[in-house]
Design brief:
2 copies of one chain form a homodimer. By secondary structure, the first copy, chain A, is α+β, with helices and mostly antiparallel strands. Chain A is 31% helix and 18% strand. Chain A has 7 helices and 7 strands. Chain A has a 4-stranded antiparallel beta sheet with strand order 1-2-6-5, with helices on both faces. A two-stranded antiparallel sheet of chain A has the order 3-4. In chain A, strand 3 and strand 4 form a beta hairpin. The longest helix of chain A is centred in the middle third of the chain and has 18 residues. At the A-B interface, helix 1, helix 2, strand 1, helix 4 and helix 5 of A face helix 1, helix 2, strand 1, helix 4 and helix 5 of B.
């Protein structure tokens, strides 16, 4: 089996950051990586607002959940990953129902960002805990633009800066379901109904 | 500016496939790459069904849109990327509204799949054009599991196998919005309202 790409294998959702700024030319490579993500019809619905200056970072920080505020303030760069659904498509099913594509496309772009950051030896930690309206207000984002995630980016820092329970998680062994619960060949397998959240239950 | 990771820069949504099968050990690396994607609370909502056998591939092929049926039948491997929303979370906003996370998480996993495939010199082309119910039926997927995308995977093939208009697209120059329309620093910029689909309009 060939090795998994290091940019994927080395990614961890770390929370300890060095205060050193991320240089502009390094940021540029991150944005180019996001730009290269595919989208149906090349609609390119994803946009980024990178909060680097003190006022913007403080405003965006306050939009984060309490849990994320325990550690994300140390990141020199907080990036709001956005998408405009009007720039994207809804894919039709044969019965007339539709599937929104912007969240999937945004996720692919976030995957690119995380891989590129990891390749550059940065930590990039995407957060789900934030208030969408407060993020818009903090960064002047229009109402019709969705906030998909806020990513904390920076060089890895000192574990000693973290509270003990977060410190323990920083280098804890990675946990994933066995591959046979993830993938099946040719037909869905009941092992795939096992949940990582409640491994004894099938949902 | 450091180079963008080749696994991201070399990815193209190609449509010409060599008929050669993707070896099992190569497939395994693709699944490991998908497994490594992050998810909130490590919920791991993503599942894959890889259609490789003749019956499964034909059934899944028929679930694709007419446009995709012009070329995707040549792919030796068609992978349905799925997610169970019950394995994932809805993130709360302060006003009580919520944001679904499974589509974002699925997109990140797809990003990993595409990057890993590109690194292995495979084509991996994610498709939005399919009928969700027909994909479920083709592969025995439960009703509560969503189909996010179907990815055509294989080694690159001969452009001569494609119809002329698809052949022209295969190696056409990549088009993306300028970086200043994608990213802004500290505050949303009106240039970000420009749409790739209708560049003269702001939406």
């Amino acid at each position: 089996m060939p090795d998994v790409l290091p940019a994927l294998a080395n990614r961890r959702a770390r929370r300890a950051f060095d205060p050193r700024a991320v240089p502009v030319e390094i940021q540029r490579t991150l944005w180019e990586a996001v730009s290269l993500a595919p989208s149906h019809g090349n609609g390119q619905p994803v946009r980024l607002v990178a909060a680097e200056g003190t006022v913007a970072r403080e405003a965006l920080f306050k939009a984060l959940s309490e849990g994320n505020r325990q550690w994300a303030g140390a990141a020199p760069l907080l990036v709001a990953v956005l998408a405009n659904p009007q720039h994207d498509f809804e894919a039709p099913n044969r019965d007339g129902s539709t599937r929104e594509l912007w969240p999937l496309h945004t996720g692919i772009a976030v995957g690119n960002l995380l891989a590129q950051a990891t390749d550059l030896e940065l930590v990039a930690h995407p957060m789900a805990g934030f208030d969408e309206a407060a993020v818009r207000e903090a960064l002047g984002i229009p109402q019709n633009v969705r906030v998909a995630t806020v990513v904390a980016i920076g060089y890895p820092g000192d574990l000693a800066d973290l509270v003990p329970d977060l410190r323990a998680r920083e280098d804890a062994p990675r946990k994933r379901l066995p591959i046979e619960n993830l993938v099946s060949i040719d037909r869905w397998d009941e092992r795939q109904a096992v949940s990582a959240r409640s491994p004894k239950e099938k949902k």
